Amino acid sequence: MPARRVSVDPQGPVLIEGPVEIALGDGTIARSDRFVVAVCTCRRSRTYPWCDTTHRPRERTAPPPEDRNP
Ligand code: FES
Predict the structure, then answer these.
(1) Interval between CA 31 and ligand 1 midpoint (Å)
(2) Where would you tag: which of 4, 34, 36, 61 has the fewest CB atoms within 10 A of its CB?
(3) Where are the domains of the chain?
């Protein structure tokens, strides 16, 4: 059986070649059949244990409302 590759992003998730089963603290098992699975390490994901990109810093795309009307 080939070795399973795991990549660690120091600012984000751990990427694991799937399928993956994760045993959670409450005894349940989370499973993903994706080719590569992003496992959250920041614990802020709304879909924990899967990364939902919440770890990424947010950038503003529009100026704050007070700057729009001179
Ligand atoms: S690592 Fe991406 S949401 Fe936690």
Answers:
(1) 17
(2) 61
(3) 6-56
